Amino acid sequence: MIDGTIMKGIGGFYYVKCAADGNVYSCRARGKFRKDGLVPVVGDHVKIDVTDTEKLEGYVTEIFPRRNAFFRPPVSNIDLLLVTFAAKDPEPALDLIDKLTVTAVAQGVACAICINKADLDPGFAEKLAEEYRPTGFPVLICSAKEQKGIAELKALLQGKITALAGSSGVGKSSLLNAMGESFTLETGSVSEKIKRGKHTTRHTELFPLSFGGFVFDTPGFGSFEVEKRKAQDLSALFPEIEAHEGGCRFPGCSHISEPDCSVKDALEEGKIGKSRYDSYCSLYESLKDVKDWQI
Description:
This protein is of the alpha/beta class. The chain has helices at residues 32-35, 94-107, 122-132, 150-157, 172-178, 239-242, 262-268, 274-287; strands at residues 2-10, 13-17, 24-29, 45-52, 57-63, 69-71, 74-76, 80-86, 110-116, 139-141, 161-165, 205-208, 214-217. The protein has 3 domains: 2-65, CATH 2.40.50.140; 70-217, P-loop containing nucleotide triphosphate hydrolases (Rossmann fold); 231-294, Ribonucleotide Reductase Protein R1, domain 1. It contains 8 helices and 13 strands. α2 (94-107) packs across α8. The longest helix has 14 residues, at 94-107.
């Protein structure tokens, strides 16, 4: 029995890298996981039973407790969620981006914003950055094509286990390739007809970074599923809104329709981004009827 980390999962096989010998073992999962309703995911720290030392084969016998876990895409034990979107082609879907940041905060995972393809519209890229700077999340303006922001991106990722999250076509794989790693990641184009990205990544894989740390390259997706929670708890998941609470006239203020609201005052003063506030209102509306038993 030796310990390792799942680096990749394809077709029921899990490729586990073990620190003890540096080898990567091709493993199946024991049937007990299906019985317990537990599925191994990339990033899991596991114990394996080696059955063939020459072919490097074995079985996953135990999954150690996860610090966090996401299931769209299936990854675990991440340090940083890098929410990545393009300034143009495709146009950023800010409501989906905000659902990603909400999910990161809810999971207690550090979050950062990466605006790629800044070369296509530098002015709009800066406008988007201004929208997210009040969150307190690190905000990077990048262009994989022009190598803009790549040094800052490498410094942010160094020593961390990072998952890149965002829709297909925003240039996640291009950013990874631009960092000068030995990745051979396929990059995709954007459909001219619908201005959406074409999926290029077919599975989730954990890659070691030469400058320290690991990064997930994950299949394209729109957003993680927002967890069921009470609407009155939502403001804690928007750092810039939470920072301006406490001065409202009414206890339990929703920061939407009540008068004398310190959050709406901050919005008027430009201390909270308009699109961020709109996302908050939309999510609040979707959560306001959630009952205790649904959480």
